[in-house]
């Protein structure tokens, strides 16, 4: 009687294990080394968000930053400490009605170094050129140059602001939007909203020509005059970055009608330039 053929042996467990081992070698699981570039890029983007928030909303506290950017207190503190160490931001201590007596609140603002790192190219060349212009043509030439620079802004902004209607607050918000598009990091806040002294404060967290305006305040004055014409009210400058303030703050009254001359246009009202280094954005 012939012997029955032995059935084919199934793949031994050892060989299955070897195959599984080789597959594991071909597709390794992610390691921290593979994740580092992505984590570093994400960390850099978060740092840029912190800088942008300090630029637009400063002086701002760590708690406010965390709420605004949806970051944990530990993450906010880590980025603030790193940016402070690099000199990009700085601490501004000040009292607040909300904090009461005790240790002054720590608020963060962009430092001068941080401002200068935002792409303000060729400012040194421009300062030299303006100095030579003043020497050759006199200081009045700087006035004319500053006026012509902001005349272009006025021409571009006027249609958009007119489209916002006659309400001064709406026009101020439209102006802030246009300024932000031009890298001025602008925002508005309403104060004393229920009284005849109600006003809008227009804040600019960045000035692309800050160094030039520090040497030639005619630029700040020309800009404020344009604001007054665009908004059809008299405005007052409470602080400027060029004079050492943490933000440029323009006070825009909304509780009374604009003063008008007999032609129906806003009367020419001198803009009061006030240097106030402690001026903050209204809370």
How would you characterize the overall build of this protein?
The chain is of the alpha+beta class. It folds into two domains: 41-116, Winged helix-like DNA-binding domain superfamily/Winged helix DNA-binding domain (Arc Repressor Mutant, subunit A, Orthogonal Bundle); 123-273, Muramoyl-pentapeptide Carboxypeptidase, domain 2. The protein has ten helices and seven strands. The chain has helices at 13-26, 32-57, 62-69, 73-85, 112-116, 123-137, 140-163, 168-181, 210-215, 218-231; strands at 89-94, 105-110, 186-191, 199-204, 236-239, 248-253, 272-273. The strands form two sheets. It has a five-stranded mixed β-sheet, covered by helices on one side. Helix 2 (32-57) packs across helix 4 (73-85) and helix 7 crosses helix 8 (168-181). The N and C termini lie far apart (103 Å). The model is unreliable at 1-35, 95-101, 258-263, 265-270 and 272-278 (pLDDT under 50).
Short summary:
By secondary structure, this protein is α+β, with helices and mostly antiparallel strands.
Q: How are helices and strands ordered from N to C? A: HHHHEEHHHHEEHHEEE
Distance between the termini: 103 Å
Can you summarize the main beta sheet? 5 strands, mixed
Whole-number total of structural domains? 2
Question: What are the main properties of this structure?
Answer:
283 residues; alpha+beta; Arc Repressor Mutant, subunit A; Muramoyl-pentapeptide Carboxypeptidase, domain 2; two-stranded antiparallel sheet; globular
